[in-house]
Write a structure and sequence with these properties.
The complex is a heterodimer of chains A (283) and B (294). By secondary structure, chain A is mainly α. Chain A has 9 helices and no strands. The longest helix of chain A has 41 residues. Chain A has one domain. Classes of the chains: A mainly alpha (283), B alpha/beta (294).
Chain lengths: 283, 294
C-alpha cells in the first residue's frame, strides 16, 4: 500500500462546542425541560403559600429549604433524563453515524454532549436560584416591615450564598450527568441508563451513611472496601449547603471552593472514563 | 481538503469482522476475508443481499467499527484514524437528521463539524444546497422534508467539506423513481468531477447505469468483482436492432446467417419501465440546480 499523506486532526474545542451547542438546542426544544422548569418554579413559588407556617427567620429558612428541595428533585430528574435521552437519541436515530463519520474525535463528541447537558442544567439552576432569591428577598422585606425587631442587625439572608448554593447544586448535577453519560457510553438502552442514573443518585446521597455505619466494622478488608467505594461514588451531601444560607455567619467560601474543586475533579475523572468506554463502542 | 495522493481511495486486505451475539458469546462472522481495492475517480457498487456484510464493511471504512482482523485504508490512512475521514462524505441508509433544524442550519452544523473555514462556510453551505436542488426548501425545518428531500439534504451534508470519496448507503431506499433518478444524476455529476463514489443499492438497474465497477458480497465473502460492462456483457454475441421486417425477409435473413454459421434470435425490444415512468410523470424540478462543483 502507498504511504499516506498525513495531515493530522488535532483535538478541537470548537468542534466540541458545536456538539454542545446542538445538544443544548435539542434539549431546550424538548417539552421535558420546559415541564420540569415550570414544576420547579411552581413548587418554589408555592413556598409562599406556607406563610402562616411560621414567621421570622424560620419562615425564610423554610422557603430556602423548600426552594432548594424543588431544585434538587427536579434538577436530578432533568439531569438523568436529559443526559440519557440526548445521548440515545443520537444512537437510536443514527445521527451519531453521520457525526462520527466526520473527522471528529469521540472525545469531542462525548465532552460536547456533556457540556450541552451541563449548560441545560445550568440554565435550570440559574432560573430556579434567581426565583428563589427573589422570593426570599420579597418575603424578607415584608417581614422586616412587619417585625422590625427581628431584623435589628439588618437582613438575615446572605444573597450571595444563595447563588453559591445554587452553583454547587449545578456542579452536583454535573457529576450526576457525567455518571449517567458513563453508563450510557456502554449501555444499550435508554431505560437501563435512566435506572442506573437514579441508582447512582441514591448511592451518592446515602454514601455517607454507609461510611458511618461501616466505620464501626472491625474487619479491615471490609473497611477498605467501603473506603474504596467512598472514593468511587462522590458524597452528594457535601453539595447541600442550603442549610447554611441565612444562618449565622453564612457560608464558608473557602469550603465552597473546595466543594467546587471536589465536584470538578469528579466530573473530569468520570468524563475521561466515559470517553474511554465510548472510544471502542461499535456504532 | 487534502492534497491528492497516489493511494487508492479504499484498500481493504483480508478483512474479517466477527460480532459476539448473546450471553454465550457466539461469534457471528459478518465479513469474511474481504479484499478490495477501489481506485480514485470510480463509481463503485457494493452489492449483496441483506446481511451480506455491505453495511459492516462501510462502517469499518468509516472507522465506526473496528475490524477483527485485516486492514482497511482510506487514501492510505488506516480507517480507525480520524485523519482517514478528512476526505470522506457519508450518507447513511434512511438518514434521520435533527428535525428542529432548517436545511441550511443542518448543513452548516456539519460544515462546522468538518472544519470548513468560517470565511467560506456560508457560501459553501449555499452552494451544496443549491447543487442538490433544495435551495427553495433551505429555510424549512428538516422535519417537514419528504424522503427524497432527506436523501438530498443528506447528500448536501456529505459533500459540504468537498470530500474526494463519497459513501452512499442505499441512497435511493424508499425514494420514488423520480427522486431516485435525480440522485442517480447527482452521482453521475460527482463522477464527472472526478470524485470516487462507493454506493450500495438493491436497485440493480440503477447500479448498472451509474457504476464502473461492482463487487458482490454474499455471507460476508466477495464472490464477484469487475467492470460492469465486462460482467454483464455477453461475449461473442451482438444485438442488431432493425425496423420490423416482413416474415419473408426475416426468414431470408435467418437463412443467410445460417449459411455463414450464425444463429439468429428475434425479440421485440422493450423500453425500460423506469424510463417510461420518468417520461410520463412530471418532475418537480431540476435535481442538480445550478451547474458547478459540489
Amino acid at each position: 500500500m502507498n504511504a499516506p499523506t498525513r495531515t493530522g486532526v488535532p483535538f478541537s474545542f470548537g468542534r466540541l462546542l458545536v456538539v454542545a451547542q446542538n445538544t443544548f438546542l435539542e434539549a431546550v426544544r424538548q417539552k421535558l425541560f420546559a415541564l420540569l422548569l415550570l414544576l420547579a418554579i411552581g413548587l418554589g413559588a408555592s413556598a409562599q403559600l406556607f406563610r402562616e407556617f411560621n414567621f421570622g427567620s424560620s419562615e425564610l429558612k423554610f422557603i430556602a429549604d423548600f426552594g432548594f428541595g424543588a431544585m434538587i428533585f427536579f434538577g436530578s430528574t432533568l439531569t438523568i433524563a436529559a443526559t440519557a435521552q440526548l445521548f440515545f437519541s443520537e444512537i437510536e436515530n443514527r445521527t451519531a453515524l453521520t457525526i462520527l463519520a466526520k473527522p471528529i474525535w469521540r472525545t469531542e463528541f462525548i465532552f460536547g454532549k456533556f457540556l450541552g447537558v451541563f449548560a441545560v442544567v445550568g440554565v435550570f439552576c440559574a432560573l430556579t436560584t434567581l426565583l428563589l432569591a427573589g422570593l426570599l428577598f420579597a418575603r424578607e422585606s415584608a417581614l422586616m416591615e412587619a417585625h422590625p425587631e427581628a431584623f435589628e442587625h439588618g437582613r438575615i439572608i446572605h444573597y450571595a450564598d444563595v447563588f453559591v448554593a445554587g452553583g454547587l447544586q449545578w456542579l452536583k448535577f454535573g457529576v450526576l450527568a457525567a455518571f449517567t453519560l458513563l453508563v450510557a457510553s456502554y449501555s444499550n438502552t435508554n431505560l437501563f441508563t435512566v435506572i442506573m442514573g437514579f441508582f447512582v443518585l441514591v448511592v451518592c446521597h446515602l454514601q455517607y451513611l454507609a461510611r458511618d455505619a461501616y466505620a464501626q466494622v472491625a474487619s479491615v478488608p471490609l473497611r477498605l472496601l467501603v473506603r474504596l467505594l467512598g472514593y468511587v461514588f462522590p458524597n452528594f451531601q457535601v453539595f447541600n449547603v442550603a442549610d447554611q444560607v441565612g444562618m449565622g455567619a453564612g457560608l464558608n467560601h473557602l469550603m465552597a471552593l473546595r466543594i467546587g474543586g471536589y465536584g470538578l475533579a469528579y466530573i473530569a475523572i468520570i468524563g475521561v472514563l466515559a470517553v474511554y468506554s465510548f472510544r471502542n463502542r461499535e456504532i | 481538503m487534502t492534497t491528492p495522493t497516489t493511494a487508492a481511495a479504499i484498500e481493504i486486505r483480508g478483512l474479517i469482522k466477527d460480532f459476539t451475539v448473546g450471553l454465550r458469546g457466539v461469534k457471528l462472522r459478518a465479513v469474511d476475508g474481504l479484499s478490495l481495492r477501489i481506485p480514485e475517480g470510480q463509481v463503485f457498487g457494493l452489492l449483496g443481499p441483506n446481511g451480506s456484510g455491505k453495511s459492516t464493511t462501510i462502517k469499518i471504512i468509516l472507522g465506526l467499527l473496528e475490524p477483527t482482523l485485516g486492514e482497511c485504508r482510506v487514501f492510505g490512512v488506516p480507517s480507525h484514524q480520524v485523519d482517514s475521514r478528512l476526505n470522506v462524505g457519508y450518507l447513511p441508509e434512511a438518514p434521520y437528521f435533527y428535525r428542529y433544524l432548517s436545511g441550511t442550519e443542518l448543513v452548516r452544523f456539519y460544515a462546522r463539524i468538518c472544519g470548513v473555514p468560517s470565511e467560506r462556510r456560508e457560501a459553501r453551505v449555499r452552494e451544496v444546497i443549491e447543487w442538490v436542488g433544495l435551495a427553495a426548501a433551505a429555510s424549512r425545518r428538516v422535519g417537514t422534508y419528504s424522503k427524497g428531500m432527506l436523501q438530498r439534504i443528506g447528500l448536501a451534508q456529505a459533500l459540504v467539506h468537498d470530500p474526494r470519496l463519497i459513501i452512499l448507503d442505499e441512497p435511493t431506499a424508499g425514494v420514488d423513481p423520480v427522486g431516485s433518478a435525480e440522485i442517480s444524476e447527482l452521482i453521475l455529476r460527482l463522477k464527472a468531477q472526478g470524485k470516487t463514489v462507493l454506493i450500495t443499492s438493491h436497485l440493480l438497474a440503477q447500479i448498472e447505469d451509474i457504476c464502473d465497477h461492482v463487487a458482490i458480497l454474499d455471507h460476508g465473502r466477495l464472490i464477484l468483482e469487475g467492470r460492469v460492462a465486462e460482467l454483464v456483457g455477453q461475449k461473442n454475441r451482438q444485438a442488431l436492432i432493425v425496423d420490423t421486417l416482413p416474415p419473408a425477409e426475416l426468414e431470408a435473413l435467418r437463412a443467410w446467417l445460417a449459411e455463414r454459421g450464425h444463429a439468429l434470435s428475434v425479440e421485440q425490444p422493450r423500453a425500460r419501465l423506469d424510463q417510461l415512468f420518468l417520461s410520463k410523470v412530471s418532475r418537480p424540478g431540476n435535481a442538480g440546480g445550478k451547474e458547478g462543483g459540489a
